[in-house]
Each structure stands twice: as C-alpha cells, then as structure tokens.
Amino acid sequence: MPRPLAILLLTTSLLSGCAALDGAQKLIGSFTGGTDNADPPAELKAYQMELSVDVLWREQIGDGLAGKLFKLQPELAGNTVFAASHDGELGAFLTDNGDSRWYLETDYAFASGPGYHDGRIFLGTSNAEVVAFDALTGAELWRTRLSSEIASVPVADDNQVLARTTDGRLFALDSKTGAMLWNYEQPVPALSLRGAGTPIIFADKLLCGFANGKMLAMRLRDGKLIWETAITLPAGRTEIDRMVDLVADPVLDNGIIYVAGYRGGLSALFESQGDILWNTPNLSSYTGLTLDNRYLYLTDNNSDVWQVDKRNGRPLWKQAELHQRGLTAPAIDDEYLVVGDFAGYVHWLALNDGRQVARQFAGDGPIVGRPLVRDAIVYVYTADGTLAAIKRGSL
Q: How far apart are the first and last CA of the chain?
C-alpha cells in the first residue's frame, strides 16, 4: 500500500535550515512507520451511515499547494468563503452555491492564509511578503516585505496584523497601512516542522507558541514579553529526537490555554501567568485541537482522534479506525466531529463515543487545514486546489 500523500507532503517540506539527508530520511520514517512502511494507513471500511452528506458545490483554485506543505486554508466571513493557491490565484465564493464574487490571478507565491478581519483578508507569501486585499472587491490594499517566508496564517484585530516567519520571528504590522510596528525573535532549532501556529489575540495581549517548545504571552501594542513557559523541553541525542515544535494552533477558553506540541504532549496553562495546570504527555499533535463546553478533541501524530476531559487532561475515548490517514485538526459540527484525510475524504464522528457516522469524498488530494463548519455545511480545501462545500442532513 502506498504511503499517505498527506504525510509525504508534510515530510518533504518539514526541514528548516540545512538539515542532513540522513536526518530527513529518519524524519520521514518517523511519520510513515519506517522505510518499510510497517505502519500503513488504515483502509476505509464500509459501515452503516447514520447521516446524509452530499457535495453542494466544488470550485478549483489554481494548483493548490503545488505539492508542498503551505498553510493555505479556506476562511469564512459572512456569506463568503475565501481560498488561495500557491501559484497566486485567490477567490471569494458565495457559501450557498459557490458562485464567484471575484477571482484574481496574481504574481504572488502564496504560502499562508487567508486570514480575515473587518473587511480585509491577509495572506503571506514564500517571498516574505504579507499582502492585504479588500474582501468585498479583491483590490490589493498594501504589501509589506518581512524577513523570510510567512509560516502562519496572518491574524488581525482593528489595529495590527500578526505574521510569523520561518526564521522564528513574529511581526506586528499596522492593519490599515502595512507599516512595521515591532518584531520579536525566538531561536529556531536545527530541525522544525514547516509552518507555525497562529497567534491568539485577546484584549491587549497575544499568545504564541514557538518551535523550541515555549509558549509566550506578549503585550500587543509593543511586543513586550509578559511571561514565557516551556511546555516541553528538547530531549535526546539527535536533532530529530529533540523536535518539540508547537506548530498546532493553541486554543484559549475561559482563561485557560490548551496547546499541543509535536512532542511533549497536550497541556493546559493559566492565561494570566502561564503556569501549567496539567499535562498529558502521551497525546501529542502537529495538526491541532478543538473544544466544546466539557471536552477537548485532538488529532494526534498517528491520526488517531481523542476526546479529552478539559479539567484534567484525562483521555475518554479514542478513534483509531482512521489511523495514519493524515487527518486534519478536528472541527465540531453540532453533535459530530469532522476531520479530513490524505485521500480527500471527509469523516464525521459522533462526539459521544467517536464512532464513524458518515463519510464523503470532497476532491483529489489531501485535505489541508481544519474543516470550516457553518449551518450544517462543511467547507474543505484539498492540496490540489479543490474548494468543496458538503451539506450534512438526516437519513
């Protein structure tokens, strides 16, 4: 059986800096179960569907990720969904039928985004640029060059846009003009996962995790450090063993930060001081997590999906029938959990026990980024550039 394409896309673009070839091969092996593929992706098995799921529409956006791992993923705002491709195409589509509001063919090599705030969308490029566009018309508003490729989806509030680069820097730009306001730098390990977690803006602060396993709280207006907590410390003799990247997006809920690292487990921290409330070391993730009122839901490094108690980090159920299928971070769709896989399938799982309840093919290629959910419609984007909307209903 061939190795999952989503994993190969990830590992062929994972290394930052000048890592040795043998290190890269070992790293690829760590995601694919070794060079002999001893841990292959689970085959999809037939089961009794409990939901009806149907594709409402599909649209093609350029060549998608161009065979690499970029943080290009769809964004919802009002009745519009936005998506971009690495070869510079950018579109805005109506959520109910996929009709194009506007579509651009640019010269940019988009690498991350789009992010949305207050009528503007923001994208990062492989050529170290952050670009702002008018969300209603697609008109370019400004462009600012930073230090290296933009590794995270740009996130904004009324005043600032935050963007992270592959050389370990966090930049704050004026959201209306693109003018540089401040920047902050953390050292980048010799090996790290490609991409970066999206910072969280809350009140007058921001939260950000880095490739060295540290979570930081900073003052938004000037980047002054408020606190710094080592979620996990590098350990081991090789650089691969020492990878602890916090590449998954953290989640903030009622004063508690939930963060998962590539290694070092799943942790909960107090937002005020950064003190660790609990840590579950055997649940690590490079894709991400989501939550509801009582539980966290996590896709781990093996593409097994978990439900975890928010109060203490105790695992409650595990869904392993999609093992090694390159699953995305999960999203909540009413009473269900939604994930995409490396073969373009979207899967619905029951929140109460993790059982599979529905499956739908969205498009060729791995689904990238967390699925977006609104009003029982799931929006996903595949690595080959397919943007699809899937409607969930009852049988």
A: 33
Bond from prior residue into 330 cis (ω within 30 degrees of 0): no
Q: For 142-181, b where at least 16 C-beta lie within 10 A, e where not — what string?
A: bebebeebbbbbbbbbeebbbbbbbbbbbbbbebbebeeb
Asked whether 330 and 289 are in contact (CB, 8 A), the reply is yes
Please tell me the distance from the alpha carbon of residue 136 to that of residue 258, in angstroms, as a whole number.
34
Name the stretches of the chain with pLDDT < 50: 1-37, 190-191, 241-242
HEC sequence for the chain: CCCCHHHHHHHCCCCCCCCCHHHHHHHHHHHHCCCCCCCCCCCCCCCCCCEEEEEEEEEECCCCCCCCCCEECCEEECCEEEEECCCCEEEEEECCCCCEEEEEECCCCEEEEEEEECCEEEEEECCCEEEEEECCCCCEEEEEECCCCECCCCEECCCEEEEEECCCEEEEEECCCCCEEEEEECCCCCCCCCCCCCCEEECCEEEEECCCCEEEEEECCCCCEEEEEECCCCCCCCCCCCCCCCCCCCEEECCEEEEECCCCCEEEEECCCCCEEEEECCCCCCCEEEECCCEEEEECCCCCEEEEECCCCCEEEEECCCCCCCCCCCEEECCEEEEECCCCEEEEEECCCCCEEEEEECCCCCEEEEEEEECCEEEEEECCCEEEEEEEEEC
What is the structure's pLDDT at 235? Answer: 53
CA 25/CA 11 separation, integer angstroms? 9
In terms of Cβ atoms closer than 10 Å to its own Cβ (0-12, 13-18, 19+), residue 40 is middle
Distances (CA, A) of 328 to 9, 112, 120, 230, 256: 13, 16, 26, 26, 23
Per-residue model confidence (pLDDT) at position 248: 79
Query: What residues contact 47, with CB distance under 8 A and at least 6 apart?
Result: 356
pLDDT computed for residue 195 by the predictor: 53
pLDDT at 33: 38
